């Protein structure tokens, strides 16, 4: 029986965009586990699996339900130890938390100032109202104000990727010689921007651009199956 | 036979300060390997082990000589696999490279603007001349200009540690339930500042402060054996 993967969508069900959901899609594919997407819009998240979580991703594997992208990766690693590892050992599992913390505090923060209005604009009207209210309350300002420095945020985004750029001098993936969940953590952030926004964030001669393209090719082009916003 | 550890010093041989050398000291202690420090000042680095490297740390283990802190950790892990692991598996070894890249590009860059003149001031005159010339050539400005924004750099330093701060919400060490080389990478940067500079970089209610104190306690208080500059 396939794993049920509750994934976030806007008005177009063919363009899932949540960074945390993309991490899970890649993790499931990495483990070679078949899954069925259940499309969920913002205002229906609390109906998922009896309201287990205020946010998606959520997965159901038989009778087991797990929320939170990192906990889902932990669950998959523990439950399917004979399939390709997502962490490459306990040290990698711990350090993936650092990379998640870096991605959240550095990339996501910067991307919020770039894509927040773009997200709003791809939602159905009911979700737009929810999204605007909840995000404006969280950030303490209007969506339009959040993205006021958008052009500067786009111009400055590349420098935030310096730790990844330097890592790629030593090895082809964050996971070393092959990709691990840590790669999908950072991929999720950039895929979010790729699917939801026309902002050009990476130059083509950037090793991070090449790494991202290789991520898009993984698992039969799973990430590339949703075209970039043009 | 003890491992010979070529470590950088200034005028006071009891106050080794190099961040990369501190990583190696902690790694050797982590593996439980006895070592003898060979004190080296800046202008004598090219005399170490026949000029194998332009920088220390360098270690000699019997007939084997290894330079570069990360390559030394790799060597110790490979050569002493039955002693406590420095990486916790291949994934951790790869991701420690990311943490090194983050530390170098974020922490070291910021610390350079804080401690560069402090380093100069603890060196012997001959080393001072070398240090000033080489660093000013590398940075394209005078030492005094490099630290012109020192107070602002000190005030802004704490925010750069956010990825570590968030990680410590999930686990006590970057390595997870116990410290790994990744912890020593970041420890090295903060120990550098602690030994060489009176700048106060961390507030006592910061989880990173607590983590750093726990690092200082490790391996019979190896890091604490050099008092903070007061």
TrEMBL record, chains A, B:
It holds the Pfam family GST_N_3. Gene3D superfamilies: 1.20.1050.10, Glutaredoxin. CDD domains: GST_C_etherase_LigE. Residues 89-230 form the GST C-terminal domain. Residues 8-84 form the GST N-terminal domain. It comes from the Bacteria. This is Glutathione S-transferase family protein. InterPro entries: Glutathione-S-Trfase_C-like, Glutathione-S-Trfase_C_sf, Glutathione_S-Trfase_N, GST_UstS-like_C, Thioredoxin-like_sf. It comes from Hoeflea algicola.
